[in-house]
Design goal:
- The chain contains 5 helices and no strands.
- It is an all-alpha fold.
- Helices cover 56% and strands 0% of the residues.
- The two termini are 31 Å apart.
- 17% of the residues are buried.
């Protein structure tokens, strides 16, 4: 996960406003499935995680507040389960045997 703070209701409204190219104060409280699908994709791109929302959790999201709560929890879960990647060169160096005469590390 990046160093971004998880968004609250205001940030979710701004994200949804971008979807409809409208002002945040004109975003309806109730969300349609297309808006929610788009919002999930935005969260995945912003936080660099793949969200695992089963059908039950996805269908339970009806409002902006529901979306903020469920998506924040999903991002936290996804980011906790992924460890930072190890650069390939570093991983290869750790596996390689020490060169003869090299000082032990």
């Amino acid at each position: 996960m990046t160093g971004l703070a998880l968004p609250g209701r205001a940030e979710v409204l701004e994200m949804l406003a971008a979807f409809g190219q409208r002002a945040a104060d004109s975003v309806p409280e109730e969300l349609g499935s297309l808006e929610l699908t788009w919002l999930v994709t935005e969260f995945e791109q912003r936080y660099g995680v793949e969200l695992e929302l089963d059908d039950e959790r996805f269908e339970a999201v009806r409002t902006v507040d529901d979306a903020a709560e469920v998506l924040r929890a999903a991002v936290l879960t996804a980011s906790a389960s992924t460890s930072p990647p190890v650069p390939a060169a570093l991983a290869a160096a750790e596996r390689a045997p020490a060169a003869p005469g090299a000082a032990p590390s």
